[in-house]
């Protein structure tokens, strides 16, 4: 199983995660993510570049999974910095057009790609650092939450959070589990029910991001954090990471197909479709 | 199942809770709780009015469940403010006279009413805000903990906490689970073992209450909090709430009868009966 | 089952832990731990006295378990203060010589003693207070984490933490569970992956220790904390403690032999043996 292939040494008390097969290979545009690997440091940078707002479309997610797997299997790469090439936005979250007026098969394919993205990023053997250089609602926030460490630009104009409830939809249980493990149960409970978006300083206060840094220092800080995490022996760090993430990942792996079916039946409801159409109309008028 | 009837839309990954049937209808004095529903705002106020200290007797709990169910089934009602009509006390907790020198059948009936109260309040589809306008030990604290949000009067004379251990008794596991989800494991561990009661400012510091407000501003603040929570679409908020509360509720639902039997065998011990009699004597002398 | 024998009264919702049998009696040097019991207060002091650094050898752990069991069964004893008789060090953790170049049988015996120590200390019916009067890495930190309360000397020269990852090894899941219950999931996640050691003031900030006290006040403070915890009725405090610790203990009890086998296969790897030998060489040169 490639994603966990490097953790050759079994830790006491740990089970190996089952392989996480990619969805069957499909055609995709290979231009929504810029990947650069610095072989001397072993650090890759993945930049989301899908203007205007880095929506997480099926194409982008597929490209994300394939890019991440390539890095995972490249022995020259030990860490990944995830950031945005689009000014003012990290990612606006799941692409609503993928959830609106499409076939059941399309919903299923899209949701499997969302699951796959999270399983691969959250469970990556590499050190993953999110450099949140703009706003990051909903699915964009999940991407950041799935990294080992979060650095955000120190600017209250940008906000981050799982605001699904504001749109009339519900964050799935594994978004919630990921969130609870970072901010604790009580903050997550209020935040998810209110669909709260936190300006950077407040996000830092509740631990949703680990550090705030002026925009011009983001790269330098990311490199420093990476150096600190890469100073540890890979195998011990990887086994420890796996021990910390395992329970939450196992829960989705055990209920993966059920979660797809739940998504389909929820998103197919006429009331939900109507909400999403209204939301998209609103976004269009905003422009 | 009435309590969950409004959550008609199934969320991804959520199971519907089984119906929580009321204990068979019994005669009860309908005057321990004042219920007022403001139809224009959709907000009801439930005021505990059982002087001198709002003890949670079987009568009060039965009335509580029935009142709450009526509101739950009333489409005009979307939120409930829970507070006290008795000065200086929110609720002194479970009525010790119900646990002292009574029959096994009585203990069982009483404990089922305690369980039912928690299941209905904690699992309510409505937004629930506790306005803790006086002291709130033990079962009184549990009532507050079971709401979505807690506002307490900013006065160090009033305290709140799960102080059961001080009385020689043990908070049941679902009191503990509710508490841990709010203050975290470490604070709960110390607090439950020491039977700590926290003056309002300290309760706020550990997150046991969410806000402190001067007495004359309690109503205004409760209305503001309610407005914030009711601004969300009901169905998304309800499904999210259910996702957050589900694990803890399921645990009691799965062990409900066992929990009743444990309560009976614990409370029937002569040593425990003796402690409770001594405690009641002490309370009488205090007056 | 001796360790839990005093909790004669079953709490609501609690199961009795299975007896935790000592490993078959073996010869051991009875001089690595000083035990003094003050019968008037009911408080015993256990001082680790195994210079130069209180390494947790098989002999020390065996003596620890036997000493603790004696106190557990002594009705005159209600609380234990755990501290060090060696200046500047609480305990340096598991003795690496026990894990290096030994037989499979030896590794198994050693690991069972480590498990036994944790199960007995974490699950003790007595009030346990760690007085961390020096540095306390890895297994030394676990000893402190397994007590009800931690007081540390207020000196940034001394540090504490689960730094296993720095040595290329992995803290077992029950070290992790114990840690998470004290500092929360997010802090534990970073801390274990980075193998962080916290100077006393930082350890206090993240809740890893409960109080910082100048060296000359350690005893006085320990007595005060003990008095506060012993003021509660034993049976209620014990049942509450058991309720809080149970889930984590049950997990090891259910997987105990598997955990031994995992330890053996991990520690027997040539790569791990090599790391440990290099680490020991480095320690020797340091002297």
Automatic annotation (TrEMBL), chains A, B, C:
PROSITE patterns: ENOYL_COA_HYDRATASE. One of its GO terms (molecular function) is delta(3)-delta(2)-enoyl-CoA isomerase activity. InterPro entries: ClpP/crotonase-like_dom_sf, Enoyl-CoA_hyd/isom_CS, Enoyl-CoA_hydra/iso. It catalyses: (3Z)-dodecenoyl-CoA = (2E)-dodecenoyl-CoA; a (3E)-enoyl-CoA = a 4-saturated (2E)-enoyl-CoA; (3Z)-hexenoyl-CoA = (2E)-hexenoyl-CoA; (2E)-tetradecenoyl-CoA = (3Z)-tetradecenoyl-CoA. This is Enoyl-CoA delta isomerase 1, mitochondrial. GO terms for biological process: fatty acid beta-oxidation. Its EC number is 5.3.3.8. It is an enzyme of class 5 (isomerase). Belongs to the enoyl-CoA hydratase/isomerase family. Pathway: Lipid metabolism; fatty acid beta-oxidation. GO terms for cellular component: mitochondrial matrix. It is found in: Mitochondrion matrix. Homotrimer. It holds the Pfam family ECH_1. Key enzyme of fatty acid beta-oxidation. Able to isomerize both 3-cis (3Z) and 3-trans (3E) double bonds into the 2-trans (2E) form in a range of enoyl-CoA species, with a preference for (3Z)-enoyl-CoAs over (3E)-enoyl-CoAs. The catalytic efficiency of this enzyme is not affected by the fatty acyl chain length. It comes from Eurystomus gularis. PANTHER family: ENOYL-COA DELTA ISOMERASE 1, MITOCHONDRIAL, ENOYL-COA HYDRATASE-RELATED. Its main location: mitochondrion. Keywords: Acetylation, Fatty acid metabolism, Isomerase, Lipid metabolism, Mitochondrion, Transit peptide.
């Amino acid at each position: 199983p490639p994603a966990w292939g490097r953790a050759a040494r079994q830790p006491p008390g740990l089970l190996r995660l089952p392989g996480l097969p990619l969805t069957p290979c499909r055609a995709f545009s290979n231009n929504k993510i810029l990947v650069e690997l610095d072989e001397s440091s072993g650090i890759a940078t993945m930049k989301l570049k899908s203007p205007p707002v880095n929506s997480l479309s099926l194409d982008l997610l597929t490209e994300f999974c394939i890019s991440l797997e390539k890095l995972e299997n490249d022995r020259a790469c030990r860490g990944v910095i995830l950031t945005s090439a689009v000014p003012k936005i990290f990612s606006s979250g799941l692409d609503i057009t993928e959830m609106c007026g499409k076939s059941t098969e399309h919903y299923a394919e899209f949701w499997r790609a969302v699951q796959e993205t999270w399983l691969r990023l959250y469970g990556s053997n590499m050190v993953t650092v999110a450099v949140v250089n703009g706003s990051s609602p909903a699915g964009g926030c999940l991407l950041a939450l799935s990294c080992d460490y979060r650095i955000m630009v120190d600017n209250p104009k940008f906000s981050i959070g799982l605001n699904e409830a504001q749109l009339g939809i519900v964050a799935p249980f594994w978004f919630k589990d990921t969130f609870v493990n970072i901010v604790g149960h009580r903050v997550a409970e209020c935040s998810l029910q209110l669909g709260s978006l936190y300006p950077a300083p407040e996000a830092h206060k509740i631990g949703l991001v680990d550090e705030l840094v002026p925009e011009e220092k983001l790269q330098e800080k990311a490199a420093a954090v990476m150096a600190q995490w890469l100073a540890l022996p890979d195998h011990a760090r990887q086994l420890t990471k796996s021990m910390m993430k395992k329970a939450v990942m196992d829960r989705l792996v055990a209920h993966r197909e059920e979660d797809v079916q739940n998504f389909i039946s929820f998103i197919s409801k006429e009331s939900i479709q109507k909400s999403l159409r209204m939301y998209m109309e609103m976004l269009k008028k905003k422009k």
